[in-house]
Amino acid sequence: MLCKELGRRLGMEVNRWEKQDPLRSEIVDMVCESDEQSAITSIDNNDCETSDRCEIGLQLPDGSVACWESNLETAQSSLQHARTIVELIESANQRAELQAENDALTMQVVNDFEELSLIRSLSSVMELPSGGISLDDLCSRSLIPLAGGIGATSIAAVFVDEHDASKFATTWWSGSQVTSDQRLAELITAHRKEASFQPVVRNKINAFDHVIDDEALSEYVLVQCRSEGRLHGWLIACNRCSELTEDTPWAQLGFTTVQASLLETATNQLAAQLHNTRLIKQKEELFTDVVRALVNAVEARDPYTCGHSERVARFARCLAGLAGQPEEACERIYLTGLLHDIGKIAIPDGVLQKPGRLDDDERAIIETHTDAGWRILHELEALRDVLPGVLYHHEQYNGNGYPDGLAGDKIPIDGRILAVCDAFDAMTSDRPYRDGMPIAKAVSILQGSAGESWDPALIETFCANIDKMKAIKQGHRPRKQASRPLPVDGQPLTTLTTNK
Ligand SMILES: [Fe+2]
């Protein structure tokens, strides 16, 4: 009766065991082996032959119902046991669900941690030095850790032409080049539109895609590199690492949204740095242009000294390097050389352009150009480093120079270096009223006054490397004065260009 009712209610097949309680353990085993939440258990003794016996019904995990007859005492025990088993199964199932949820969360945390680690790592390697960084350095710093971070065998960066974004300019590879530049260009062209709003992921399972017909490039993620509305290019992560490594704990065959997201984040960082690099480059170019404009302003006052500042700057940079100065100091001294006579802007034409010897009053006026140079430049924060050389390039080693009569090592090294180079160029350059003297004679004069007018150690270094100085002098070509464009058909040009 019970079995029939259970079967009817549950729509299940009813299996009846004629044998009695010994089956209990088998039933329990079956319940225990179950993956499913199971059993409705019940007892009924209405149909039993004697009042101390009853029928047990148990819904099994496979969907059937098992019924058998037992004595009452054993039936109660079997029933309780079965219910306990069901509770255990339910508990085990809940535990399994929680474990699965926990595993998923752990995987998410691992992925997030890896993403954060990669972003942090890229942020530190892509940190721009104050002087900017070349595209080569930026790519090599970022692409190599990026490839390892997302588990790609290599990453290609394809950049567009700086002046025409429709043209591909340069391609950089981290790791082995797995396909040709031509293939990359085709791939980018095929995905250009899609990549403009989301990363493009293609794996081996997408072999029907007409783009993947290259055995060496079997899977990739393509991300557009853009910042501030400017397209820089694309990054393409090629071929997923097929083996698990410590660096790629989540590695598996093919790229997923995890790698696409990582590549997109890193590409955004790279794009921001490319934008910053361009800004720094523009700032440096503006700075250089301003310095050249100042030099032009000086040399426009005295055309016969055309090129003097540039030559002195080159000699000074060379001598500074030979004297063991670090590269940063060499560049500072070069810049100082360009500007060392900026104060001559303040000298009257009659004195500045006078051919022949100056009298004492005129000499006193010309000697004010070092102070004038300091006054012109000292408020410019970016040029503060050049002030010692501008102010002290006419000091003499024995203390007889100007403006402050400093002596020996009290004279800043920039001033001592420029003093040697300024004198050498002045002696060996032609002037309207005299020809430049031979280099050998200039060297003799320098050596003759070493320790008096000039730092003896610098004179020794300079003269020992006179061939280098000679090459600099012979190789230097003064820049031509720009000639402004004239109106065409009576119309002025809207963009005025100069010949640099
Ligand atoms: Fe000077």
UniProtKB/TrEMBL annotation:
Among SMART domains, the record links this protein to: HDc
Enumerate the spans annotated as HD-GYP domain: 283-478
Q: Which InterPro entries match?
A: HD/PDEase_dom (IPR003607), HD_GYP_dom (IPR037522)
Source domain of life is: Bacteria
Q: Which organism is it from?
A: Rubripirellula obstinata
- Basic residues biased stretches: 473-482
Region entry Disordered, spans: 473-500
For molecular function, the Gene Ontology terms on record are:
cyclic-guanylate-specific phosphodiesterase activity
Q: For this UniProt record, give its keywords in alphabetical order, as a comma-separated list.
A: Hydrolase
EC number(s)? Answer: 3.1.4.52
Entry protein name:
Cyclic di-GMP phosphodiesterase response regulator RpfG
**Looking at the Swiss-Prot or TrEMBL record, what is one Pfam family this protein matches?**
HD_5
Q: Which residues form a coiled coil?
A: none
